[in-house]
UniProtKB/TrEMBL annotation:
Record-annotated Peptidase S49 domain positions: 135-285
Pfam families cross-referenced by the UniProt entry: Peptidase_S49 (PF01343)
GO biological process annotation, one example: proteolysis
Ribonucleoprotein keyword on record: no
The protein's name in its UniProt record: Signal peptide peptidase SppA
Amino acid sequence: MENRVNTFDSQAGKTKKPFTWKKGILVFLIILAVIIAAGILIRGHMKSSDAVIGDGGTLKLSDPYIGVLSVEGTISESDTSGLLSSSSYHHSWILSRIDDMIKDSNNKGMILYVNSPGGSVYASDELYLAIRHYQKKTGRPVYSYMASEAASGGYYISSNCNRIVANRNCWTGSIGVTLGTMYDITGLLKKYGIRTVTITSGKNKAMGSSTVKMTGEQKKILQGLVDEAYEQFTGIVAEGRNMSLKKVRKLADGRIYTAKQAKKLGLVDQIGTYDEAVADMKARYKMSSAVKAKQIEYDENTGFLQSLLSESLSRVLGKGNSSGASELEALKSVMQENQTFTITYLSQVRK
């Protein structure tokens, strides 16, 4: 319970409440919101003439253009973003913009600006399929420009592009699958004399639980899930890069490749800059000088600030005046947070 001390002002004859830590944080959040709002407004005024703001509605330009979509951050079906979330990737928004370009006759091609370590199997594959649909429906070219990192799921979505151009400092590859780390805390439970009971409908329903030792059969079941996702990944790379499956599997041991290594192995077509990627598409597909590359950017509207403040306040004001978690509280946290795991095309190595 928070300690409060009332002081008496003899001149005013009134009691005053001290400036508590909660009020201080609230003031800080309000100031922060104002700074962020100002930053967004400034950013809006500094937009290049080659940038287009996508507001969640339909997108259509009056002049011929190459649509440039940024795939940055972890590829996830979740569209959460903000200061408390490091995500800058907006899955449903990107899918909608691809659909818009399919319908737009002024669109002449698409470039994916990829700066991502990958992400979930589902979201990576859904984006890959949307790109394939664009190619088949329109016959227009799709390039992947790999910036700082295009690993695992970042490479997955790029593999079937008509051409892949990698920045010379790019890390790519990491062709493989990972299953979220599972913890065995049975030893800790025994140390504190804690016994757990899990009621299930079958012996494998609770596999992956941190409170029960995993059996050999359960390891095989989970490995089977990983193996199937791996086969899908390698098959897509083999098809997109016109390689034999045998060669892809030899490369696909999960390792990271530099841009030079990737080009030598046939995983990328060219090492170059973003401008060179744009110029290459225009020259290779004989586009007129009137065709410009247009960056289609997500509109960070006021909903961002609203979600930021509501989430921040709920977290701060709901925590109380805790001085730190004990060992038992830390154990409880592990038990609560590590009961789920996800199969991903996600690189564990980050730039």
